[in-house]
Amino acid sequence: MRIIVAGGDGFCGWPTALYLSKQGHDVAILDNLSRRKWDDELRSNSLTPIATLEERVAKWKEITGKDIPIYVGDMCHYDYLREVFRQVNPDAFVHFAEQRSAPYSMIDRDHAVFTQVNNVTGTLNVLYAIKEMAPDCHLIKLGTMGEYGTPNIDIEEGYIKIQHKGREDILPYPKQPGSFYHLSKVHDSHNIMFTCRAWGIRATDLNQGVVYGLDTDETMLDPMLVNRLDYDGVFGTALNRFLIQASIGHDLTVYGSGGQTRAFLNIKDTVRCIEIAANNPADRGEFRVFNQFTEWFSVQDLAERVKIVAEEQDLSVNIAHIENPRVEKEDHYYNAVNTNLLDLGLQPYLLTDEVLRDILSACVTNKSRVIVDNVMPKVSWK
Ligand SMILES: NC(=O)c1ccc[n+]([C@@H]2O[C@H](COP(=O)([O-])OP(=O)(O)OC[C@H]3O[C@@H](n4cnc5c(N)ncnc54)[C@H](O)[C@@H]3O)[C@@H](O)[C@H]2O)c1
After folding, report:
1. Ligand 1 centre and the CA of 166: distance in Å?
2. For the sheet containing 138-144, what is the strand order?
3. Catalytic entry in 185, 219, 294, 334
4. CATH number of the 2-374 domain
5. Are 266 and 351 in contact (CB under 8 A)?
6. Domain residues of the chain, as ranges?
7. Which of 144, 150, 204, 270 is an active site residue?
8. Residue nearest to atom 39 of ligand 1 (CA)
9. Which pLDDT tens digit goes with each residue over 340-365?
10. pLDDT by residue (tens digit) across 216-237?
């Protein structure tokens, strides 16, 4: 297949582009490199020293002989996006290219507006580009499990059967997003669902859990292919953040009681889920939703598991319960369905102590790069 990986310079997009290229697909990367600029804005960095996008793809070609053309530009510029579609004529468009940090979207009005304009416009543009330039192209869009929030009933995959006053229907599952970022994903989902119905677009919305880990088989082929690893209070996510905190002797920062339960998956499974979605395209007009995660944990459970593994390596670790900067339930029911990807063949790569040890060891190797000032959360929801 000819596949565009939009956001292919990012944490999920880079290993996905390499994995799909390795499987024999013709992959092109589209990215405006804004993630690197947000690091500059926040005076932050990736824990791992990442090469430029040009260096990365040149190294991939040197090692594998496979070409990954890169298109550096903004999905929000429609003429540019159309031109990329004209040149690539994609069978699938994998859309990672959004501002993906909840805290970044909550910094102030400007960041909330930027997040929603960037994310919603980019997705609308790709829907129009598919309609106009490649009507059979399968949109594989990254959503998030955070679209659902934490309802007091089981979370289904996109839809729920409702009985109301003696009648029955299957309707979109109710959404209770917890930040302006998560709201942007819900807006995207609605826009995609509408265009599937109105224009016959084929789309898969992947409601992804929190992704942890660093390496895939492909990124480990050479230091220049290393993936980025975020740890700061704005872009760092639970688990990866705890492991990095443990590596530098920082308290593990559990927000509030730590009872918040979230769905997770390893980056090694992200890349396989995307391939499974690409190999099994949605039908024309179908808005398909997969919950893309393999396990769920409470934040407190994760902190305790990291503590055990880190202490085995003589790192001294303290779990600190700090005031929760977010507005979220800390004690709640959580039970989410994830059978669609498993039914299509996903074999989960689960979180074992060995996996934790591997990520921790990468963190220890790079710990001198941590800017300690950036570790604590500074953005409040209130
Ligand atoms: N990382 C996670 O834990 C996680 C969890 C659930 C969902 N997701 C979703 O997966 C996707 C990828 O996440 P990630 O962690 O790799 O993020 P990331 O920030 O590392 O990568 C996103 C990439 O998209 C690019 N980008 C952003 N806006 C763009 C635009 N307008 N035009 C072109 N390029 C643009 C950025 O430069 C960056 O390289 C996001 O949509 C995110 O919401 C991520």
Report:
1. 43
2. 70-72, 26-31, 2-6, 92-95, 138-144, 202-208, 287-292
3. 185
4. 3.40.50.720
5. yes
6. 2-374
7. 144
8. 10
9. 999 999 999 999 999 999 999 999 99
10. 999 999 999 999 999 999 999 9
